[in-house]
Amino acid sequence: MGEPDVSFFGCDGEDDKTSADYYFDSYSHFGIHEEMLKDVVRTKTYQNVIYRNKFLFQNKIVLDVGAGTGILSRFCAKAGAAHVYAVECSHIADMAKQIVETNGLPDGEVGDGVVLPDEASLYLTAIEDAEYKDDKIEFWNNVYGFDMSCIKKQAMMEPLVDTVDQKQIVTNCHILKTMDISKMVPGDASFTAPFKLIAERDDYIHAFVAYFDVSFTKCHKLMGFSTVKLGCYMTVAPNKKNPRDVDIMVKYSLSGRRCVVSRVQFYKMC
């Protein structure tokens, strides 16, 4: 048997941008794909899941949604898939087609199955990080002698994506929600979840940290990966104008030795 066909589909948009263009434009640049490919935990986990569970892919039709450079599609092809449909609506699809041709995977014509990964859990904890807060937030108080603190409001509304040293965690971890991805329907991505974090040492709390685990439960051996590096509520919902963005509301109360505070904070995750 020769290599299976891998078909790439692009989406030709109109001149007038829609909300989805925010997503398509950002994923057109190679830099974001470089970052994902260099995320060894993520990429190697997918590779191991596919190569070590070929029974899920051999002679099967595979749909790779949001294929990017097509790395996962090529993993599936190597695992024996009969045909792989790689769907990517940003312009990186042009590069993906070329990569397929360069690596000898032909571009051909393009039932019940499984969704991989099929389970995800979202967690929350809190950390101390005065140095990072000073660098990212308080920085705007004095920029070369000028007060730019008006930008702090914008900075406070944008969640940061970064790694966290385990030593900075000052509370327990609370699970917010577990989702069966294979059974999700429209609307399931919006939810409100109460949580309670308990300080485990005498320290300051500068930020909430959210992280998630994903699982591949259909494998012979359970596999997955984690992004883990106060009476409260968290509400999460796709943005109405751009569903790729996420609107987050955190309502929290804290009663500590040094301060008592009750606050509602809004974030927009782009």
TrEMBL record:
Organism this protein belongs to = Gossypium raimondii (Peruvian cotton)
Matches recorded under Pfam families: PrmA, PRMT_C
Alphabetical list of Gene3D superfamilies matching this protein: Hnrnp arginine n-methyltransferase1, Vaccinia Virus protein VP39
Q: What is this protein called?
A: Protein arginine N-methyltransferase domain-containing protein
Q: Which domain of life is it from?
A: Eukaryota
Q: Name one GO cellular component term.
A: nucleus
InterPro entries reported for this sequence: Arg_MeTrfase (IPR025799), PRMT_dom (IPR055135), SAM-dependent_MTases_sf (IPR029063)
Q: Which UniProt keywords apply?
A: Methyltransferase, S-adenosyl-L-methionine, Transferase
- Give all residue intervals belonging to the Protein arginine N-methyltransferase domain: 118-227
Q: Which PANTHER family match?
A: PROTEIN ARGININE N-METHYLTRANSFERASE (PTHR11006), PROTEIN ARGININE N-METHYLTRANSFERASE 3 (PTHR11006:SF53)
**Gene Ontology BP terms:** methylation
GO function terms (MF aspect) = histone methyltransferase activity; protein-arginine N-methyltransferase activity
